[in-house]
Amino acid sequence: MIGALNQGWTVAKSVLGFERINSGSPRRAEFAFKRLGALGRERGLFENHEYFERYTRLRLTWLT
């Protein structure tokens, strides 16, 4: 038995909450955007209007 009798859902919510926070960490998305931005600059992709528009839209979606 994990936790108190009839408290399984409480334990499960706690574990799922931790998992959600850990795997949905904004730091992971921030790293991905920094890398995507660096690649875009290195390869001149920001000069491509479609790439820049998609990158900006995705970034704004993530920030809100």
Average residue pLDDT? 79
Assign a percent range to the helix content: over 70%
The general outline is rod-shaped
Order of helices and strands: HHH
As residue ranges, the low-confidence spans are none
Strand fraction band?
Answer: under 5%
Radius of gyration (Å) = 19 Å
**Which structural class matches the secondary elements?**
mainly alpha
Query: Count the strands?
Result: 0
Note the gap between the termini: 41 Å
Q: How would you characterize the overall build of this protein?
A:
The chain is mainly α and 64 residues long. The protein has a domain at 26-64. It contains three helices and no strands. Helix 2 runs antiparallel to helix 3. The longest helix is centred in the middle third of the chain and has 17 residues, at 26-42. The N and C termini lie far apart (41 Å). The mean pLDDT is 79.
Give a brief rundown of this model:
The chain is an all-alpha fold and 64 residues long. The protein has helices at residues 8-23, 26-42, 49-63.
Which key phrases capture this entry?
single chain; 64 residues; mainly alpha; 3 helices; 75% helix
Q: Helix and strand layout, with pairings?
A:
Elements: H1 8-23, H2 26-42, H3 49-63
Helix pairs in contact: 2-3
